[in-house]
Each structure stands twice: as C-alpha cells, then as structure tokens.
Amino acid sequence: MPSLAIHRLPMAHPGDLSALAALIEGGRLRAADVRAVIGKTEGNGGLNDFTRGYFTQSLMLLLAAHTGDTPAALTARVPCVLSGGTEGALSPHYMVFSVADTVTTQTGLALGTDFSLAMPNESIGRAAQIHAVAEAVQVAMSAAGIACVADVALVQVKAPAGRGGDPAARTRDPKLLMALSRAAAAFGVGVALGDIAPEAALENALLSDYALYCNRASISSGVEVICNEVIVFGRAKGWAAGLTAGVAPMRDLLDLAGVQAAFQAAPGEVLGVIAKGEPDVSGRIRGQRHTMLGDTDIDAQRHLRGALGAIVAAVAGDGRVFVSGGAEHQGPPGGGLVCVFAREV
Amino acid sequence: MPSLAIHRLPMAHPGDLSALAALIEGGRLRAADVRAVIGKTEGNGGLNDFTRGYFTQSLMLLLAAHTGDTPAALTARVPCVLSGGTEGALSPHYMVFSVADTVTTQTGLALGTDFSLAMPNESIGRAAQIHAVAEAVQVAMSAAGIACVADVALVQVKAPAGRGGDPAARTRDPKLLMALSRAAAAFGVGVALGDIAPEAALENALLSDYALYCNRASISSGVEVICNEVIVFGRAKGWAAGLTAGVAPMRDLLDLAGVQAAFQAAPGEVLGVIAKGEPDVSGRIRGQRHTMLGDTDIDAQRHLRGALGAIVAAVAGDGRVFVSGGAEHQGPPGGGLVCVFAREV
Amino acid sequence: MPSLAIHRLPMAHPGDLSALAALIEGGRLRAADVRAVIGKTEGNGGLNDFTRGYFTQSLMLLLAAHTGDTPAALTARVPCVLSGGTEGALSPHYMVFSVADTVTTQTGLALGTDFSLAMPNESIGRAAQIHAVAEAVQVAMSAAGIACVADVALVQVKAPAGRGGDPAARTRDPKLLMALSRAAAAFGVGVALGDIAPEAALENALLSDYALYCNRASISSGVEVICNEVIVFGRAKGWAAGLTAGVAPMRDLLDLAGVQAAFQAAPGEVLGVIAKGEPDVSGRIRGQRHTMLGDTDIDAQRHLRGALGAIVAAVAGDGRVFVSGGAEHQGPPGGGLVCVFAREV
Amino acid sequence: MPSLAIHRLPMAHPGDLSALAALIEGGRLRAADVRAVIGKTEGNGGLNDFTRGYFTQSLMLLLAAHTGDTPAALTARVPCVLSGGTEGALSPHYMVFSVADTVTTQTGLALGTDFSLAMPNESIGRAAQIHAVAEAVQVAMSAAGIACVADVALVQVKAPAGRGGDPAARTRDPKLLMALSRAAAAFGVGVALGDIAPEAALENALLSDYALYCNRASISSGVEVICNEVIVFGRAKGWAAGLTAGVAPMRDLLDLAGVQAAFQAAPGEVLGVIAKGEPDVSGRIRGQRHTMLGDTDIDAQRHLRGALGAIVAAVAGDGRVFVSGGAEHQGPPGGGLVCVFAREV
C-alpha cells in the first residue's frame, strides 16, 4: 500500500542537489522511492536555458549514486519537469514526489507516471502526439489506481519540442513547435479526462480553437525531451491519507479569487504550488493594454511568470511557486490554473 | 474654493496625449487647471529610458497649445512625474490632477505643489537636498491649505539625479547618485511630516540607517530633473468633498494584506493607484531566496515592478497602477507602500 | 544648380537636436535646405522603441521654428530615417543631408526624395507596395536628375509596418509584417534599378526566394510610418562635385574585405556610413554555429547590430555608423551591404 | 619530451562534450593527457550564468570515465577556464590543450599550470592574492621549463570571486569583488613577468592606477572558483616544435591593426584565439559617445563581447574566438589584447 510524500527543497544554484542529498543521507528519504521531480530553476526559461539540463544531470547523478541504477535508466523512468525562470518574487526550488510502502489502507492522494514512446519530429504537434499523451494518461491513472477521471486533480506533462530544422516537422519555427507540442499534450490530457471531446481534438484545432481547453493539464515542452513524460495526481483507494490537491482555474491574469479558490480547496500546510498562465494575446487584460507581447528586451514569458508568480506567491505568502508560461489549451485564453498540494491538518 | 479632479487616461505610446487632448477639446477639462501629472510609460525605467522625456515634451506641447504658456514655463510649474516600466500586468497610463474653482465650502482631498531651487550636482544626496525637500513640502502643504502633517496622505517627489561624471558629486556612479537623491528626498519628506526626527536625518544615514523611513513618501529620481518637484496630497478645508486617498505600508513584497488595507482605506470608485517597493537587499523574502538582484539580463527594478505591480493590480482588478522601484527610506527594507485615490460612493 | 552637404552630428539623447540647432543658428546651414535625415538612436530598435518618434518630433519642432512650416508639413516632406540600437561600439548620431543652390556646373553626388501615397494595412507586403516603391524610386531619381540606374549608389527607404491586429493585413504577426514590408520595399527598389526582374518580383517570392536581392537597397520599417519614404543617392549632372558614395556588398557577417571595399570606393574624409545585415538564418556563419537567433534575453537584431556595427566601425575607426538589421532581399542571405559617403580630398 | 596539441571543438550546448568524447574514443587523444581547457559557452557571462558549471561538470565526468580519476581530483588538477557569452558572431567552442610525450628534442610552444592555495574571501582583491598568483605563475613557468619571462606569451588565470555577503570581504558588492579579483590576478601576472614593478603592485592601486597593466595577462573570475588556477603559455626547450602563439595589445576597442598584428605574429593554421577587452569607462571611444555602460537591458559586458568578438572574428574569418570582458589591468583603459595560437605551415 503506497504512501506519497512531497518534499519542497531549496537550491543554491541549478546544479545544487545538496538538500536532497541530505535527506537521503539522513535516512529520511530512500532514493529508490523517488517517482517524480518538479522544479523551478533560475534560467531564462527559453530556448537557450540550460539550467534544466544541468539540474537533471545533477539529479540523476545523485540518484544513481544511491540506487545503483545508471543515470540513463533513471532519466527514462523518473520524470523531471523543470521550468526555467524565477522572475520577481519567485524562489528556485524543487518538489520531490516519493512513494513508499506503508501498512495502512485508506484513500488518499495518488501519483502515477508513464512515458510514451519517443516522438519523432514529424509527430510533434500532430494527432499522433495527442493520442500518445491520452494513452499515457490512462496508463498512469491505472498505475496509480485512480478509478475515474473525476478523481484526477492534475496531469503534469513534459513534452518533446523537436529538434530545429527538421524538414518533416510541422513547422521550422522552434518556438512555434514548442507551443504546438504543449497544445497537443493539453488536448491529449483533455481527451483522456473527458474535458475535450475526442472528435473535437483535431490537429487543426491546435493553437486555433481556444474554446477547447483542459483546466487540469499543466504542460511544459523542451527540446531536450524525447517522449511525453506524464505525471498524474488524483485520489485513489489504497493510498495513505493526509495529502490533498486543490485545483482552480484562473479566468485571466488578475483573477485573484481563482488563486484563492485553489488554496481554499487544499487547506492545511502547503507542500507545493503549480501555476500556469499566459500573456493575453488580445494585448489587453480587462480592457487595459498590456505590453508583455511587444517588449524587445524582455521575453513575454518572463513577463508573465514574474506577474503570475507574484500574485500566487502573495496569496501563498511564499515565493516557492512552480509557475510556467505557455498555457495553450490549459485554461481559457489569457487565463490559466493553480494547483495546491497540502498536508491536511 | 478649489475642487480636485483626477482623470486616469490611456496612452497608445509614450508620445500619445490624445486622450487628454480629447478631454480638453471636449470642454471637460481646462488645460490651465492641470496642476500635476503622474504616469507610467512603457520604457525600461532605467538610465536609458527616454519615454519619460518624450511624454513630457508631448504633454507640455499640448498644454502650451491650449494655455498660451510656453512649454518651458509649463515645465517649470506643472510637476510631471513619470516612471518607466510597465512590466507584466501593468498598463501604460497617466493620471491628470486638475484643480478648478467651485462654490461649495467643504473639507476634501487637496493638492499642493512646489518646486525647490535648482540643485547643483554637489548638493544631491546631501543635507542641502534634505532641507530643500522638507521646505518644499511645507510650502506645498501651505499652498494646499493642509493644516497639519497628520492630514497629509502622500508626498510624491521627482528628484534630480545629477549629471554623470561631475567630480563634485557625492559619487560618480550614476545609479548610486539616483538612489542617494531618492533617499535624501525621502528624508526631507519624513522630516517635514514628523516621521523622521530632524536630528536623525543626517547625510551619513542615507542608504545606511534603514530604520529611518517615511511611509507617506513616494520618490522617483531622474537625470533630466533639475530641482525637487513636490506634490502633496492630503485633506484640507475649503476643498470640495468627494475624493479620498488611502495609504498603507507594505512590510515586504508579498504583503497582500497591506495592499488590501490601502484599498479598504479608500472605498469607492478607484481613480488611481501609486505603489512603491524594492527588491529585498537581503536576497530573501520570508526566508526564501529570490533572484532579482543577480540577474544579468533583467534589471532588478524591472523584476520588482513586474512582481509588485501584479500583486497590486490583482487586488485592484486593473493594470493601471503607478508602480515605481527604488523605495529607499520610503518603507521598511524590502517593503513599500500603496496609495489609492478614490471617489467616494 | 544644387549642392549637397552632409553633416554628421552627435546627440546626447534621442531628443537632443542641439548640434543641428547650433549649425542653423550659427548660419552654417539653412533649415529650409534640409532634405533628409538618417540617424541612429540609442533605443532597442524593436517594436517598443520610441526613441525614433521622440527624435522625429524634436527634429520637426526645430525645423518648424526656423522655417515657419508646421511640423506636420515638414514630416510629410523631409524623410527622417531612424534606426534604433547603438549596441557595442556604435555611437548615437544623425546625418543631415541638405541641398543648397550654387553657381558651379559640375557632376556630383545627388539626392532625390519621394513619398508614396499612404499604404493601407492590406497593401503592406503585397504587390501594391512593390509597385509604389518602384515608382517612388523613379520619381526621386528624376527629381535628382539621375539619368540612369547605373548611377544610383543607394536607395534608402523608410517603409510602413502597418498597425497591429488589422484583419485585412497579410499577417497579424507584427514582426513578420515589418519584415514583409522591408522585403516588398527591397523588391520595389530592385525592380526600379533593374537588379530584380519585374516578372520575378512577385508577392509570393517575398521572404521566400532569397536569390532575389538588390545590393543598393537599404530598408527600414516602422509602425509609425504611413507611406514609403524614399531617398535616392547617385551621381548626376548639375550637382556640385566633391562628395562621393561607395557601396559594396557583404557576402556574410564576417566579410571584412567587403567592408574595406566600400571604404576604398569612397576615398577621402568619411562623412557617413550606412550598413545593413542580418543574422544568418541557417544558424551558422562559415560553418560555425552562432547563437543570435535563439537568445531569449537579447533580440537577434540587437546581436546583429552590435557585431556588424563593430566590424564596420573598426574599419572606419569611428563608431558613428548607421547599422540596421532586417536586410531581407538587400543582399545575399546572411550578408548585407556597406555604403560610405565621403568628401574627396 | 613533451608535445603540446590544441584541439578546438564545437559544442551543441553547454553540456555537450561529444566532440571530445569522439576524439578520446577514436584514439586521437588520451584523456590523461588533457592539461587545460579554455572555452566559451552560450550563457550570459554574468553572476547567474550556470553554463560554466554545467560544462565543467560534464567535462570532468567524461575525463573521469576515461582516466579512472574522480571528477573532484580532475577538477583540482585540470584548469577549465570558461567564459560565458557568445554574443553576435561568436560561436560556442572549447580548446583542449593536451601534452603527450614525444621523442624529438626541439624548442616549441610549452604549457604549464599551477593551482594556488584556496583563497579565503578576505584575501580576494588584496595583496595576498597578488602574491599567490605571482607565485603560481612562477611555478607554472618552471613546470613548463620556460626559462625567462620574455618567453612567456600569455598567462590565463581563473580567479576566485568569493562568496556573497561575507563581512570579511573587501566589498560586499559581488560584481566589484569579481573585478577586484581580476585586477589582483593581473597584478600578480604582471609582477611575475616583470611588466609591473612589485613595489607598484599595491592593493590600493587595484582598479585605481590604470597605468599599471600587463598585456600578457588574461583573467576571468567566477564565484564557483576556489583558488587561482594558472595556465602559462610560452616557448621552451624540450617541447616539440610546430605550434606558436602570437600576442598583441589593442589600444582601444576599434584597434583593428592591433588584432591584425596578433594574427601576423602567429602565421599558419589558426588553432585558437583569445581576446580580452572592456567598455571604455570614459563613455567614449575615439571621442564618440558609446552606450554600453548605461543600458538597462543589456549588460555592458555582453555589449563588449559582441563588439570585440565580431572584430576579432572578422579578421580570423571564424567565430570561434574566446572573448572575455573585464580586462582591468590587462591592457590600457578601454583596450585589451589578442592572442593567437597557430600551427606553423
């Protein structure tokens, strides 16, 4: 009978895993129990952000030293979802999700993971990716023992963004390919959870029909990713009680009530926070012009993370918030979602 | 008997005064009644932000065309306080404060202005500037008929930052000279309002003794400024009722309750919002590391404005917030203040 | 009989026209003789660079004060081509081209200008713009008395970039629309000069068939521009001798010999330098990977101007070089051109 | 009898050592022969550039896998000098310097290395560091068998920059401490090579008396560095002939002749290029204002590297140039140096 634990740990720099090493060496966490890591590094969050690779390399070296597995084997089994960019009030940190066997029989917060097959460049942002993600969500739910889609709180996906310049790719614009990959993964999650009708989840609707979205999907994409790595959180029988996850949509960037609703849905000691959002492509928020999309000097996603992160951090009273931009089809246009993990008290 | 009006207007770009022109041409505002303008332009807010100068030139040309005064005469009489940087959720806008004669006798929100003598480079960030600002605050209070310092809501100062490379200046680092100028002006306001004891307001305490601060001072500095331009807001007899100003301190960047307190102190229709804050120089907010001060690619003040602006905008439900960094001695270290102007309903 | 003069003047900031004012007030230049201004301001050179508008407003105010014309009339008659971005070794400056009557009959460097009709958004980046520019080049040549296309040294065009969000526009991506406008203008120049066959200069070839280019076209585009403003430089009878223009192509960014060839083609005292280039879209220069196109923190054009500007400035021994990115169809892919104005000695 | 080899290798990203791995696995280079690595990664080159740490970790893992040494032991023995920032025309790459035993007895290019003792924070930018570097240079010369200081071509030093916030440090400004460390190391090299008189190399002269400099010192500093890591290049007996190093000073950023002199001093096939420079703190280059030091959006060193790198790359015809800013006391103010490694042909 599994029991999920969440540790939220600081890092002094993107290669610093000393806090996790101390937990392992202190006997408080078995390296072999680590099932997923979700974190924020202080890179720029864009194409030339290498802090994600540096952290992942350092993490897998540490886990390898304590499990005897090779870094490559661990990388193929343990999803490590990183988002670069700790603009403004945000603080670099990572959440370690571990699962240990316990003897109690209860209903509690469950976690399941799955890796799809490797996606060739020509499949990214296409029907093949939508289907692969939908299937991986079902496999991960099944692995966690989550009985029905209503019990799923959040699906976090790390999606491949392809390699530049492949003529077979749907586009040769690397930023657009990243967005298409996020969109396809969001569609896949939406289909698996019943939030998007399968017959509507068409390739042509990606980045086009924004009425289609899934407010329980949180997607990031990266060029270093090979397949779709899926982490499902939800309630399931046979998992130790005590942890909970609350999710709420944000209708726009200033939706303070939406943020507060997510915290109210997961009362207790906060163990981790995930938020997604995006600069409103209309160029306006509640009728007022914003300037995120036309700034030559600061990337729009860096603007977005600084703003969204500060709002969520102000409600949490804590800058350790996983905020990621690129929320295509993960909420209404210009909006997003907030997910709070808490220990019930 | 004067009556204060506040118009909050959009701009399409930093040279766009069309919204004010429309008010004047439509007979809704007399150009000669304009007493002060406070606004946010979409520049980078730093040394090489020229959107402030562009807006000011455009404003004065417009007022000159309608008043018959020269742009130079208007510039010497109408404070125009601009802060560059509309990061994240912020929206470029400006508040026009105008005063018209009315026939009612009431107590209401009053405004007074004063310009100190020109500050030579060697006076900036020194006792001479502290005294000049303190005196200008008293003149402006007197002009507005504000009877006692307890009735002052906020003092906004636009302070000179000197010209680079003057050997007589206290420092040749232009950013430091800007900070010293803000600090000296904050001391001047604090002394005038009784928030800082005159005997403590010493040159050596500037940027050094952060226990000294005035939570009703909002200071910006710029190299294009020649003297200390002071705008005092407060309650006074003989001013038409109906407008109010609420001010509250922020103890740190995540002080959501502080922001909410300012809005509660000025119930009604919000006409304008001013906020000041700064990246905590300790490198931490509530114990968690932030990365604003060590980012080679995004200026710390741009980080700060994006974060603080989003929090205040989320409470306001509106991105039209005047947010300015550089809050030395204008609140506790790492903290700041929020001032809300509202029409009572 | 006209005589062309070129003054290269410094600016302390984008609103500083004091050097030109001094020339006019000192009787060294008649304001009414000013035919065109080409300059570099220290903005970021992108969508949110307002230094161009600030300089233009300030220039037209100065000329209006000395000519009696309105700023609007001057703006519609005197092309003012500005490029933002003085990265690296570059120095903010502007070149004032003035034409005075003289009594000598010679052959020399001539200048002609023309403004096309206003371009509606739906014409930008389309055949209509190609034709409008081609026609304007012919009008400007004729005005200057340049007899044949072989005598044209350079055509500088300031092209309209449309207003965002117009559904009738060829694209709603503002950066792409700017590029399409530059491309169409380059095609127009190429057709007018015989460097591109009219039957090849098709709308579909814009930003597509890079074998089509004109090495005597230097195009910039801006959202503040209404019509195509064309400046033609070349040799013509009836113009005073003494000035010369040398132009040479650059085959890639590192083509030092190309830069040197332009200077050798215009021996004497250098009066001004114009250079165009672009980051090689292949991602490589002479086989080595460059990182200009994938930097989240520095815009590719800022990278390009810093690099190209330094190379040209090193050959010139002077940072006053007009360097502008966005060289689509103005040279081979990844390459560009250099034009040197000199006084023969 | 040793023989020096230089391999200049591309990297696809800062963790990509595949080109070196291929050389080792192909038998073309013994991992145990690697004596030093000098490279450029595509980070921002500032305080929050983690590409240096990522590359170093990846390099040491590779060498460890092939030598049996631990990464820690290799890090303490093999200097790995990295500079972040491949702005403009620059290309990410690294130079691997390896030394193998051969049987010929000749005079050729020699390499020696030494690591000083660890520097506590309070020693950085002080006399202790000057002396430690001077001594390390002598040890490295001796190790290489370089008989006299006139035979030294270049000394590359990687100097410690201390840890932030130590009250014992000479300053708590981390950027200033980095500069002081570079300055002290330059003094140390200058003293060791006789370019700076020992009695002049005083702590108070650091960053103050810019008449003191050593044009054969190339220094970088980083917070991840513990001690002074010194690499000396020069001519010595007992080293295989065939390689040469040419060094020349640059008097300012536009000193094209200086760059060309370095290439002329090392004729043949270019194997690597090192350049140092800095933005002129006077704010002018040859009398014209530059804007590198006051740009809020692009760091001055990023401006500098883009400009200097392009000039050197244009002469080399190759973007693989190691360009590093922060040239305090490594050349005249505003100037720098260029060093070219070549295989004689």
Biggest sheet, spatial arrangement of strands of chain A: 1-4-2-3
Mean pLDDT of chain A: 95
Question: What oligomeric state do the depicted chains represent?
Answer: homotetramer
DSSP E strands of chain A, number: 14
Task: Label the structural class of chain A.
Answer: alpha+beta
Descriptive labels:
60s Ribosomal Protein L30, Chain: A, 7 helices, alpha+beta, four-stranded mixed beta sheet, 14 strands, homotetramer, 29% strand, 345 residues
Overview of the molecule:
Four copies of one chain form a homotetramer. With 345 residues, chain A is α+β, with helices and mostly antiparallel strands. Chain A folds into three domains: 1-103, Cyanuric acid hydrolase/Barbiturase, RU A (60s Ribosomal Protein L30, Chain: A); 106-241, Cyanuric acid hydrolase/Barbiturase, RU B (60s Ribosomal Protein L30, Chain: A), CATH 3.30.1330.180; 243-343, 2-Layer Sandwich (60s Ribosomal Protein L30, Chain: A). Helices cover 28% and strands 29% of the residues of chain A. The first copy, chain A, has helices spanning 18-25, 51-67, 71-75, 127-144, 174-193, 256-265, 300-316, and strands spanning 2-10, 34-41, 80-84, 93-101, 107-118, 152-160, 217-222, 227-237, 243-250, 269-276, 284-285, 288-289, 322-324, 336-343. In chain A, the strands form four sheets. A four-stranded mixed sheet of chain A has the order 1-4-2-3, with helices on one face. In chain A, strands 5-8-6-7 form a four-stranded mixed sheet. In chain A, helix 5 links the parallel strand 6 (152-160) and strand 7 (217-222).
